[in-house]
């Protein structure tokens, strides 16, 4: 297994939502002005004690959650950026694919899912480009953390 540099990873956006975990339903468009992205998959913790285990604390995995934080350089008229802004303003879902390469190339892998955009912020420094950060959280069960292009 070879590793890839972050520059080789690609983010794709679709306003057509996934209808299953195999990628059906989405029409992927690469989101090219992305500077960086952070993704996290986690389980809530369910902690409890019982008499049976002598009062020792036990922890079980709870509900699965996934987040995507996407940072990009603002470009006026960028349709993918506008789709993300529209998603938060209109409380719509958006499909996101976080891939280790081109989504059309066999063997590439990543995460796909339908997300709710939970925050959208712009940074407007006086001496640099405007950047945008959007935080997105998994919205439904149409999530595949091991999606592989066949």
Which keywords apply here?
Elongation Factor Tu (Ef-tu), domain 3; mainly beta; globular; 53% strand
Question: What is the radius of gyration computed over CA atoms, rounded to a whole number of angstroms?
Answer: 18 Å
Helix content: under 10%
Tally the structural domains: 1
Kindly identify the CATH topology: Elongation Factor Tu (Ef-tu), domain 3
Order of helices and strands: EEEEHEEE
Mean pLDDT: 92
User: What structural class results from the helix and strand content?
Assistant: mainly beta
Overall shape: globular
The CATH class: Mainly Beta
Query: How far is the first residue's CA from the last residue's CA?
Result: 17 Å
Give a count of the beta strands, DSSP E runs of length 2 or more.
7
Low-confidence spans: pLDDT under 50, at least 5 residues?
none
The biggest beta sheet reads: 7 strands, antiparallel
SS strand fraction? over 45%
The CATH architecture name reads: Beta Barrel
| Helical run tally | 1
How are strands sequenced across the largest beta sheet?
2-1-5-6-7-4-3
């Amino acid at each position: 297994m070879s590793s890839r540099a972050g520059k080789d990873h690609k983010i794709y956006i679709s306003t057509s939502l996934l209808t299953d975990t195999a990628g059906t339903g989405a029409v992927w468009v690469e989101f090219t002005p992305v500077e960086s992205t952070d993704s996290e998959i986690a389980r809530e913790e369910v902690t409890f004690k019982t008499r049976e285990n002598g009062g020792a604390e036990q922890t079980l995995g709870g509900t699965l959650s996934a987040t995507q934080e996407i940072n990009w350089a603002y470009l006026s008229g960028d349709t993918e950026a506008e789709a993300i802004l529209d998603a938060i303003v209109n409380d719509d879902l958006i499909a996101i694919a976080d891939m280790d390469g081109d989504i059309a190339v066999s063997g590439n892998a990543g995460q796909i899912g339908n997300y709710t955009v939970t925050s959208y912020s712009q940074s407007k420094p006086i001496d640099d480009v405007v950047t945008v950060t959007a935080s997105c959280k998994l919205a439904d069960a149409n999530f595949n953390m091991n999606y592989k292009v066949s």
